[in-house]
Design a protein that fits this description.
With 158 residues, the protein is mainly α. It has five helices and no strands.
Length: 158
């Protein structure tokens, strides 16, 4: 929890920089684009959300430290961090740009769900159920993301 006290301010600064960067982006009024679809809207919203989350993280860490010593994190959290970083790296560096964005996103979301939710010890029926859910959610998230960026944010995806 002590690390969260140092991480939260860094995330807050990052969120503020994202919000400022989004605010200073060109507004494209010359092309008569609606103000709600400005290119910087998403970075501003994400920056504000990150700032809010960092405040919550800081407050929780401060309260946890005030309540006494905390147990050490288990090794599963380190494994999960590494798997998450590898999954995101494969998505950003290998999938996006090499295959259509909706396909890359569907593969990423489905594989992420499978990595973290599938438990082979629970049997084949469990794995089949999780695989079906992962595929449905992967396709749904990919479609929703593509539609949102194309029609709401007017962004062409790779």
């Amino acid at each position: 929890m002590r690390a969260d006290l140092y991480t939260a301010p860094a995330l807050f600064v990052l969120g503020a920089a994202m919000s400022y960067g989004g605010y200073t982006m060109d507004r494209l009024e010359i092309r008569q684009i609606h103000p709600a679809s400005i290119p910087g809207l998403l970075p501003m919203l994400l920056g504000a959300a990150l700032m809010l989350a960092s405040v919550v993280l800081f407050l929780q860490a401060r309260n946890a430290l005030a309540s006494g010593p905390q147990p050490e994190a288990d090794t599963g959290s380190t494994r999960d961090l590494v798997l998450t970083a590898l999954s995101c790296g494969v998505y950003a560096l290998l999938l996006v740009g090499n295959i259509p964005f909706p396909a890359a996103t569907a593969i990423f979301v489905a594989s992420f769900i499978l990595i973290f939710e599938a438990d082979p010890s629970r049997g084949k029926a469990h794995l089949a159920r999780i695989a079906a859910i992962a595929i449905v959610l992967g396709v749904a998230v990919a479609a929703a993301t593509s539609i949102l960026f194309r029609y709401a944010f007017l962004v062409r995806l790779p």
